[in-house]
Specification:
With 125 residues, the protein is mostly helical. The chain is built from five helices and no strands. Helix 4 runs antiparallel to helix 5. Regulates ATP-dependent protein translocation into the mitochondrial matrix. Inhibits DNAJC19 stimulation of HSPA9/Mortalin ATPase activity. It comes from Gulo gulo. This is Mitochondria-associated granulocyte macrophage CSF-signaling molecule. It is found in: Mitochondrion inner membrane.
């Protein structure tokens, strides 16, 4: 009986070990893919993500915008800011997340405008 119990424990440990190793490999692959995506996004955008603590995708999700349209960003920001105001029963935490997301998207718009100006100034060959 003890022999069978030991075999069951060993087999269970092997299964858990394999599952853990597979999960670890998947996490490394996902991390590598995310790092590559950040690298393609540009150094300024990555720096803005580090400063604000939010990635561009997170900021877009918080403000519920799919593309970087200044009008849509501002409209959603104003709505979410008012809805989450503490005086109307909202959450200060959520309101601060909305503000940080708005700041992050404003920074991204500034970066894109700067890149567009630099492209326009480049001599055409």
């Amino acid at each position: 009986m003890a022999k069978y119990l030991a075999q069951i424990i060993v087999m269970g440990a092997q299964v858990v070990g394999r599952a853990f190793a597979r999960a670890l490999r998947q996490e490394f692959a996902a991390s590598r893919a995310a790092a590559d995506a950040r690298g393609r996004a540009g150094h300024q955008s990555a720096a803005a993500s580090n400063l604000s603590g939010l990635s561009l995708q997170e900021a877009q999700q918080i403000l519920n915008v799919s593309k970087l349209s200044p009008e849509e960003i501002q409209k959603n920001y104003e709505h979410l800011f008012k809805v989450n105001d503490k005086s109307v029963g909202g959450s200060f935490y959520l309101q601060s997340k909305v503000v940080r997301a708005w700041e992050r998207l404003q920074e991204e718009l500034r970066i894109q405008a700067q890149e567009n100006r630099e492209k326009e100034q480049m001599p055409k060959t």
